[in-house]
Amino acid sequence: MTTAVVEAGASREKILEAAESLFARRGYAAVGMREVAEVAGLGKSSLFHHFRSKAELYAAVVARILALCEARLRTALSAGGNPLTRFDRWLDALIDTLAAHPTTARLLLRSLFEDDELTGASEEEQRLDQTLKRMFAAAGDLLREGGATGVFRPLDVAHTLQSLIGLTVYHFASGDFGAEMLGESPFSVEQVRKRKDEVRAILHGGLLAERRAQPEPPAANGSMAHDEYS
Amino acid sequence: MTTAVVEAGASREKILEAAESLFARRGYAAVGMREVAEVAGLGKSSLFHHFRSKAELYAAVVARILALCEARLRTALSAGGNPLTRFDRWLDALIDTLAAHPTTARLLLRSLFEDDELTGASEEEQRLDQTLKRMFAAAGDLLREGGATGVFRPLDVAHTLQSLIGLTVYHFASGDFGAEMLGESPFSVEQVRKRKDEVRAILHGGLLAERRAQPEPPAANGSMAHDEYS
DNA sequence: GTCTATAATAGGATAGAC
DNA sequence: GTCTATCCTATTATAGAC
């Protein structure tokens, strides 16, 4: 009986993994249940025994990766330190999570920008939306705390969160284009390290309260003094 | 006869606009030719008179917005100034272009990360890929030039380009999620202005050569000295 | 739980009248 | 150029045998 339960779970797991890979690569609409079944090694109808509809399967896939992401990010935040330390740890955990599995960022990005992918009608889908908002709201609180204690410069929290997402999630979701730009897979250990360096350099230079750049550096203006604009 | 030509062009235009809106919102696979025809106000079969296949229609839609984007960005770069000035102008043009029409960023983002959306087999589709690479390669040259002249800090060009895309394209492609974070549409004049301020603040603080932050601020380590990790 | 068979619908694409 | 009608295939989903 234990074996039966384990095998049932194993089957569900196989389906979820197959669906995750396919949905991440091609999106909800482009993937058929037949193909999911083939990859999972089941008959098409058997899928509907585990998941009553395609939408339910997709929701389950997204819920799983969202739960994983949220757990890791919450763990990163729960450790101590000042806002900057926790922020760096949060960012590190985010990048590690996205880098650990190529499907994560793609599914995350799809959840963020493909509003019409799911109707949003079912309660499960709305739970996903809430999870998504919670994930980044925690980082928003950290930004606010850091702003109040003077660690961060005055900033627009919502826009900064969008920036963080763009700097991380997009990068690891950018498939062939990103790989062609980098010359190799963004998921190689070296490229992941470079990504961390890049994001950290941009944010540490741009978010810290001390030594900000003035909008128009005099040196640059000086060298431009003899330039003419039409 | 002139009228006929104009009306033919008008019909093609209607189709392209309908398709652009639908593809941007829901992606290639989720949109049917029937729906495109309905929105465009034509019979389904009439579409196939103007575009021989769905893939050809999609390629035409993407080619149009890509050409527009590239033209505006090239214009921004062609004006004079030092690398930093041109970079700021390029960034401004990019954001303005993305902000001008809600479909632009979404289609652009789809082109960037949905590799399997189009097979990539046809010559037209490969032209699109080249256009995309050219667009950002120009910015890459600018980063290199600015790096050589000491305006920018030493940076990884490919990663920085990815950061720029993430900071701009993702933001304006982030649909309902972005709107919910901001509290209003990202395309409102105020939010566009805020986005420009945000991106500029991040990049000017993070990309300029002078006054960089040290990777590990001693203050942070100091306050963490008594923290214990499990 | 998994299978075969099938329903019901929508997909892309073509032919030919007008 | 646009239409109706049609073809073929694929889709999601269900029914029922094993």
How do the helices and strands line up, and which of them pair or pack?
Two copies of one chain form a homodimer.
Chain A: H1 2-26, H2 33-40, H3 44-50, H4 54-78, H5 83-100, H6 102-113, H7 123-148, H8 157-173, H9 175-182, H10 189-207, H11 218-224
The structure holds a DNA duplex (18 and 18 nucleotides).
In words, what does this structure look like?
The structure is a homodimer of 230-residue chains. By secondary structure, chain A is mainly alpha-helical. Helices cover 75% and strands 0% of the residues of chain A. Chain A contains 11 helices and no strands. The first copy, chain A, has helices at residues 2-26, 33-40, 44-50, 54-78, 83-100, 102-113, 123-148, 157-173, 175-182, 189-207, 218-224. Chain A starts with a helix and ends in a 6-residue tail after the last helix. Residues 211-230 of chain A have low confidence and may be disordered. Chains A and B meet through helix 6, helix 7, helix 8, helix 9 and helix 10 of A and helix 6, helix 7, helix 8, helix 9 and helix 10 of B. The structure holds a DNA duplex (18 and 18 nucleotides).
**Count of alpha/pi helices of chain A:** 11
- Range of helix content of chain A: over 70%
What assembly state would you assign to the polypeptide chains in this entry?
A: homodimer
Beta strands of chain A, count: 0
List keywords for this structure.
11 helices, homodimer, DNA-binding
Short description:
Two copies of one chain form a homodimer. Chain A has 230 residues and is mostly helical.
